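Students often ask why we bother encoding 3D structure as a string. The short answer is that it lets us treat folding as translation between two languages. Here is a chain of 341 residues written in the first language.
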Amino acid sequence: MTAGNDERSRNAASPEAAGGEHESADRGDRDTGDQEESTDLRHAAIVAEAAPSAAPRKGDLVRHAVRASDGTGLALHRVGPDDGFPVLLVPGAFSDHRFWLGTRGTGFGRALADRGFSVWVLDPRGHGASDRPGLAARWSFRDEIVHDVPAALRMAAGRRRAVLVGHSAGGAAVLAAIGADPGLREKVAGVAVLATPSPRGGAARRSAAAFAAIVSRGLGRFPARLFRLGGEDEMGGVMAEWMGWNVRGSWRWKGGPDLLAALHPVPFPVFVAAGSGDRLFAPPSACRALARQLGPNARFAEFGRITGCSEDFGHAGLVVSRASRTEVWPALVDWIESVAG
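And here it is in the second language, the structure alphabet:
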């Protein structure tokens, strides 16, 4: 890979973690201290769901329950050695931990674990094994940013720094969380965002975002399964707010700061990746623009035929397609290893 800022690439109840619950390895593959540390953990009261009956075997998943600062129960799935460098993976909309771990034992998170990383995968609120909204709940994208990502990061990093990797809206949630709470920066070694666009889009992207926001408000959810966009529908408040940011061209909630501007210049290394075949959700031009908005510590890579790949990777395919295993994953793993040292 050629280095550069704008590059094209080829190729709870207790404040302590007391344990976790074994998960059987998913089977199905997707192609498509000290006082300061104690303060951190009080923001994410960590509850062990159950003490494991035996030491985890290599490749086992262990699920940890994390209490976000608003009381919402979140699930974090961990695979890899306990003493490995921590990496936190955050899925985008319509997704849960299976996006990163696969369902037949093959997934990017497992590939990282095989390289010795301690991999943590978040189920954002409303997804996977995390809490679902009650009748009175009005969750928004802001909740994922202010509550979920910080709780997951503090759990995953512990007394260390971690690399965070987010796909699509998950990448935006990661960056926005750090922009909203500068104190999180001491936990961050680096961030990779895949298929996460700048909010400043063209007319087609703004129109699509406006349509999605209208549908989400009208139905109270976004029917992703109906449109075959993902395995789970998205909560209406989450989708409407995220899409609204893309309509207005800035990452900010009502009365709040511009969270992307708050990061400039980003003080840690950032890897921004795009697929050449992602023409609507996060086209390469929009991802490249995001890298520029983040400043000189952000580097951009495009994956497609124009850069020597076997295909033009799409929005989800950048991570979950068969070809991504040999043409995208190695570049991302190399970058993570360079940050982890």
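Translate back mentally: The radius of gyration is 18 Å. Keep this in mind for the problem set.
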